[in-house]
Design a protein that fits this description.
It is built from 15 helices and 13 strands. The protein is of the alpha/beta class. It folds into 3 domains: 174 residues, Aconitase, domain 3; 91 residues, Aconitase, Domain 2; 112 residues, 2-Layer Sandwich (Aconitase, domain 3), CATH 3.30.499.10. Strand 5, helix 8 and strand 6 form a beta-alpha-beta unit. Helix 2 crosses helix 7 and helix 11 packs parallel to helix 13. The model has no long low-confidence stretch (mean pLDDT 96).
Length: 389
């Protein structure tokens, strides 16, 4: 790999031990993927903050970086943790888990990382521009950045994202290169897909069908930021899809001349939904995977007004929580038996250890991950039905 003089100085340890270790990680990654050089990034999103997924080994790794005096070089923000930092007792999180989770959060924050604790940074104003290079790591955020915003990022692992934050660089390979951002599968949607719930089911289905390829969609005339969030998150969960296009909706549309075509009809989506459902009754309804926008929290508040008491947990970013609190949405939801939590989500929180076994969701991503991550039985349905039953 070609390295600039500054990058060589980092690799040689002239910028400190942390920068040296970070550059070693990036150089090794670049060699694996055949990158010719490093490129600057304007922002980084770091994953690997939930103690549930990191464990003691991960905690030790991050604290080691913090002890080296590591500091981020570019604006850096972070994925959800395993609990609401302020209300973890209210969630029922075990104290031993909470103590280690706080250590992990403190280590990240000591490096200068902004404590956003959200998987949807685009909801709190972090929206890189078309063609802008970033190093993001959470699968739905990567999908949104590449597809909806037209930025350029690979799906970074926790160590490579942290290394990019410390150096301000990432290897130039994969989706940073325009030649690798061309769709090779045209998906013709032959049925009405209008709700977020349906977009999630479509994503779960297509992700399995294309398995890492880049799909381009026709027939999604009503796509918007929120529905595309659900589509991309489900495709990333079911098929590791990091980039997709929608005709007349995404800022880019690039399709190979010799593309493959697949058609999706109502029967296929219905079967996908049936397969995602493994229980009829629920102990809890969870909304916010990816994190809920202010608009989605308002919808929950309005729906819960009309129904009876509901055990519904809504997960969102701290900034969005504060706005929802100001507008009275949190009070409405919590007066009806629900809760609105920040900093975490149902996937990375220790639901099973908290005694929860059957969960209702309106997210294709949550329906995919909760059974394996948290041993949950799933009821997958649209938000109106979940909150009316």
């Amino acid at each position: 790999m070609f390295l600039t003089k500054e990058e060589e100085r980092m690799l040689n340890g002239e910028h400190g031990e942390a920068a040296q270790k970070a550059m070693e990680i990036l150089v090794a990654l670049g060699k694996i993927y055949g990158a010719e050089k490093m490129i600057p990034v304007s922002s980084v999103q770091v994953a690997g903050v939930s103690y549930k997924t990191m464990g003691d080994a991960g905690l030790e790794f991050i604290e080691e970086f913090a002890c080296m005096g590591a500091k981020v070089k570019v604006p850096t923000f972070i994925n959800p943790a395993g609990m609401d930092k302020m209300r973890w007792k209210e969630m029922g999180v075990p104290e031993e888990f909470a103590q280690k989770q706080i250590r992990l959060m403190n280590a990240y924050e000591s490096m200068g990382i902004t404590p956003t604790y959200t998987c949807a940074p685009y909801h709190i104003g972090i929206r890189p521009k078309l063609g802008e290079h970033v190093a993001w790591s959470e699968s739905n955020a990567v999908s949104f950045a590449n597809s909806v915003l037209g930025a350029r990022t690979n799906r970074e692992g926790g160590p490579s994202a942290l290394a990019a934050a410390i150096t301000g660089r990432t290897p130039e390979y994969g989706l940073h290169l325009d030649e690798n951002r061309i769709a090779n599968v045209l998906v013709k949607v032959k049925t009405d897909v209008s709700t977020r719930f349906m977009y999630g089911a479509l994503g779960a289905l297509v992700g399995k069908m294309v398995k890492g390829k880049i799909p381009a969609f026709e027939g999604l005339e009503n796509a918007n930021d929120i529905t595309m969030k659900y589509l991309g998150a489900a495709m990333a969960a079911s098929g590791s899809v990091a980039l997709y296009y929608i005709k007349d909706a995404t800022p880019e549309w690039k399709l190979k001349e010799d593309y493959e075509t697949i058609e999706v009809d109502n029967k296929m989506i219905k079967e996908t939904i049936e397969n995602m459902n493994t229980t009829e009754d629920t102990e809890i309804i969870t909304i916010g995977c990816p994190h809920a926008s202010l608009e989605e929290i308002e919808e929950v508040a309005n729906l819960i007004k009309e129904g009876g008491m509901k055990k519904v947990w809504v997960f969102t970013a701290r900034k969005i929580y504060e706005k929802a609190l100001e507008k009275g949405y949190v009070k409405t939801i919590e007066n009806k038996g629900g809760k609105v939590f920040a900093d975490t989500c149902m996937v990375v929180a220790p639901l099973y250890e908290m005694g929860i076994r059957r969960t209702g969701v309106n997210s294709g991503k949550a329906a995919k991950y909760l059974p394996s991550f948290n041993k949950q039985k799933i009821k997958y349905d649209n938000i109106k039905k979940l909150l009316s039953e």
